[in-house]
Structures are given as structure tokens and as C-alpha cells.
Amino acid sequence: MSLGFIFGPVPSRRLGLSLGINIVPFKTCSFNCIYCEVGKTTDLTVKRKSFYDVDEIKKDFVETVDKSGHIDFVTFSGSGEPTLNSDIGELIDFVKSFNKYKIAVLTNGSLMYKESVRKDLINADVVVPSLDAALSGVFKKVNLPHKDLEIDKIIDGLFKFKKEFKGQVWLEILFVEGVNDSEENLNALIEAVNRISPDIVQIGTVDRPPAYSSAHKVNDEKMMDIYTYLSAHLKMKVDIIGSFNKENDKFYDNIERSIIKMVNIRPCSKDELKSIFNLNDESIKETLDKLIGEEKIYTEEFQSKLFVVGNRSVSMKK
Ligand code: SF4
């Protein structure tokens, strides 16, 4: 019988079949995010410690993993911030020693400024840190962090980690209506994220009951605007996670408007637009032909390559 540290496997769009390891007690975290789906933080701390007997967690893993069938990832996550557990490095190395599981860590990234945390995560395959704000005031409103945490220090920690880490970093941003979705915060995030340089950026909004009822979902149209704006300014690929995603029909409702916005910000090739908006050859041709016919977008040749361009006004406002 499981001792309660291991859960799943649960199907995940990002990680396939994922077996979870929860190594912090409910609800121990360095943040108290207003959108948290786990609940309000009861132990707000930045102090790392060994919460449990590490051999018990290993035993639970061995007993559960045998009965779990095929799994794609072993994921450290759960009811709080996993890097607060000072045994996480030993546990990652333990799972790694089986030589057959990929390891992911879902973290709020707040402790990456500590060298010990960066070292502990070094043998994971994928680290998914979150970064919802790059401005101090917005950070405090959305993440309600422990008083010792500063956003600039966190961004520095993420930057250092990305340089040292050989695996993949998938940075996640969650948007809450009227809290961290302003153009000012987006611009600050763009600067910070381009500096950190994760492999991919994943954005989402409030999809499940939040810890605070004041945390509201960003509507689909605004999410599409945010996606378009970030895709135009970030050096890496942006993806949408959660209920509003590229497989959702609503994503396509605003496609023409978004293509116009996109090329107004940054000229794109047809192939780039096809990939950003997840369209097939036929749909991208049809959409571009229509918008060109209506003189809403234009094409321009540069160094023998054809670009789709717009009016080049740089703003995410309508
Ligand atoms: S960092 Fe994660 S676990 Fe902690 S409060 Fe925020 S969403 Fe919840």
C-alpha cells in the first residue's frame, strides 16, 4: 500500500503519463498564489528542510512504480513547493538510478537563487518553473510571496539555473484577470524571459477553483492577444496550456485578428505563422489570401524571402 507520497500515474498533455511524488506537507510553500488550485498556504516559508524520512519516500516509490505500468515521467510536484524539501536532490538521483524514468520538477522557481537548489535539480530532465510577474508590485499581488523574496533575485536565479542546467526548462506563466495581464507587466516579462531563455514558454489562465475568489480567468479574446504579443516578442516558442489551447475551437475564432496583430508587431514568414497558429497549409493560405485581398496585411520580399507584414504599430491595445 502506498504511504501517500506517490500519486498517479495521471495523464498530462505536457508530460504524457506522469507519476507524481509529493514531498512537502499540505500546504507548505514560499508563495500563496491567489490562483493556487491546491488551496491557501498555511506554512509560508523559504526555509528548506527534510520533511520526511527519505527512505520511506524511496520505499513508497519502489512499491508503487512496479504496479504503475508504463510511465513517461516521474514528476516532483504536489501540495506545495517541492524545492523546500532539502532531500529533493537525493530523491532525483535515486529515481535517476533506475535508468528508465524521465524526471520533471514543477516549481515556483522562487528558491533558484540558492545554489543548493540549483544543484539539487541538476539531474532532472525537465524543470517547469513559473514566473507570473516581473514587476515587484504585480509579483506581490499575484503570488503573495514570503517577505524575504524579491522578484529580481528570483529572475537572476532562473537565469543562472538555465545556464547551468543541461535539460529542458519549460517556463510557465499564469495570467489572472486585472492582476498580471497589463501591457506593463507583459513588457517586463518579455525582457526577463528573453534573458532567462527557457526552451519554451507555456501560458495559461485560471481554469480550476482558485485559493482566492478574487482570482478570475482572463477571457479568451484577451488570452489570444497575450499569446500573439508574447509570440511576437519572445525569442522562444510560446504555447497555450489549459482549457484555452490550440486544440480548442475558440482559439481559431480570433485567428484573422491575431494574424494582423502579429504581423503589425513583427513581420513573419508564412511558415512561421502556420506554426504559431497551428494551421495546416490550406488554412494558412486561405486566411492570408483573404487578408491580403482585404488589404489588411501585405507581403514584402527581403533577402529573397517573402514576409507577411502589417502596419508595424507596436502595441497590444486594440
Ligand atoms: S507556488 Fe504553486 S503551490 Fe505554491 S501557492 Fe503558488 S500555485 Fe500554489
Structural Rg: 21 Å
Give the terminus-to-terminus CA distance: 56 Å
Bound molecules: iron/sulfur cluster
The class by helix and strand makeup works out as: alpha/beta
Report strand %. 15-25%
Instruction: Give the number of DSSP strands.
Output: 12
Largest beta sheet: strand ordering: 1-2-5-6-7-8-9-10
Categorize the overall geometry. Answer: globular
H/E topology pattern: EEEEHEHEHEHHEHEHEHHHHEE
Main β-sheet description: 8 strands, mixed
**How many distinct helices?**
11
Helix content: 25-40%
Q: Low-confidence parts, pLDDT < 50 over ≥5 residues?
A: 313-318
Q: How would you state the average pLDDT, rounded?
A: 90
In short:
The chain is an alpha/beta fold. The chain is 36% helix and 19% strand. Mean pLDDT is 90; it is low at 313-318.
Write the SSE topology:
Elements: E1 6-12, E2 16-22, E3 28-29, E4 43-44, H1 54-67, E5 73-77, H2 88-96, E6 102-107, H3 115-120, E7 126-129, H4 136-143, H5 151-164, E8 168-175, H6 183-196, E9 200-205, H7 220-233, E10 237-240, H8 249-253, H9 255-265, H10 270-276, H11 281-293, E11 298-302, E12 305-309
Parallel strand pairs: 2-5, 3-4, 5-6, 6-7, 7-8, 8-9, 9-10
Antiparallel strand pairs: 1-2, 11-12
Helix pairs in contact: 5-6, 7-9
Bound molecules: iron/sulfur cluster.
The site of iron/sulfur cluster has 10 residues, from loops.
